[in-house]
Amino acid sequence: MSESIIIAFESSCDETSVSVVKNGNEILSNVVASQVESHARFGGVVPEVASRHHVDNMLYVIDEAIQQANISIEDIDAVAVTKGPGLIGALLIGIQAAKSFAFVHNIPLIGVHHIAGHIHSVQFDYKVDYPAIALVISGGHTELVRMARQDHYEVIGDTQDDAIGEAFDKVARVLKLPYPGGPHMDRLAKEGRHRYDLPRPLMNDGTLNFSFSGLKSAVINLVHNCEQRGDKVIASDLAYDYHQAVIDILQKKINLAMEHYPETKSLIVAGGVAQNSHIRQALMESSERYDLNILFSRPSLCGDNAAMIGAAAHIKLINNQFESLSLNGQSQLNI
Ligand code: KG4
Ligand code: ZN
């Protein structure tokens, strides 16, 4: 089935989102209710607060997505939902809503891995040539995924500790920037220049794995030491040097991945941190060295949203990969 209308649900973290997607590559609606303001005062996502907001928002978001798409229920071929990984309480709200919708309207159910969703978000703007490698960089993930075909995923690199976005947010916090700090770091670094020498953990270890906790701790220690000495930290310069370290690490790992898998035709870059302007520019420049299409997720689709889940679900619909109504959520789940 190449023609399809899918209604997709995403609630794995702090966004309640429902989307209607046509043929896996056209967004008819993509409603995202963000909870970021509720979590900001805690400096991070509070799981129970997230679950409660999902319950409050879900029905409104479903109604809004169907109305904006201007479809009737009979047009829908499948109900898709993020089945993991993510916050279990948050996942279960979306799964229960999707299962109820599928049951009441007698529509087949499709379960989608959250990372597959981020990866397939590029389908709205590009036709992907395979084999591909996807770099998924977000608040919860830092992964390199090799794809021989559109429905084949092999994790070839992963973080050994913090996710890249998590490190961005913690560094931003010590610089007293608002939560989530990633976009503020991005802006601040534009005014900075090189001043601080920062480490690049695991950069030269010969693997495709990442580590951001040592870099994060180096920045936090530097700030605390400056404070103790009464020295002023130049936040823009620190943000600049932090970006340089992150970019060096990402470029090095991508270069290594291309050496291991020279047949790669596309490099997909997705996830919340893929909105970062410095990372986008640097990866764009370094990809010119290879005979490679670099496909960035559209900035508005980098963060968590249900349209990306609909894009990934279209491939499962073509392959007749459905779930029973006993589908459960999984906080940890292999892609
Ligand atoms: O994909 P996402 O919305 O949620 C997860 O699945 O984790 O990613 C959120 C992360 C946060 O850590 C946020 O600070 C980061 O993406 N982020 C950025 C930028 N915009 C969002 N990090 C760096 N630069 C940005 N411009
Ligand atoms: Zn995500």
UniProtKB/TrEMBL annotation:
GO terms for cellular component: cytoplasm. Fe cation binds at residues 114, 118, 304. Its main location: cytoplasm. HAMAP family: TsaD. Residues 26-310 form the Gcp-like domain. SUPFAM superfamilies: Actin-like ATPase domain. Binds 1 Fe(2+) ion per subunit. Belongs to the KAE1 / TsaD family. It comes from Abyssicoccus albus. The lineage of its organism: Bacteria, Bacillati, Bacillota, Bacilli, Bacillales. Its cofactor is Fe(2+). One of its GO terms (biological process) is tRNA threonylcarbamoyladenosine modification. The keyword Cell membrane does not apply. This is tRNA N6-adenosine threonylcarbamoyltransferase. Required for the formation of a threonylcarbamoyl group on adenosine at position 37 (t(6)A37) in tRNAs that read codons beginning with adenine. Is involved in the transfer of the threonylcarbamoyl moiety of threonylcarbamoyl-AMP (TC-AMP) to the N6 group of A37, together with TsaE and TsaB. TsaD likely plays a direct catalytic role in this reaction. Signal peptide: none annotated.
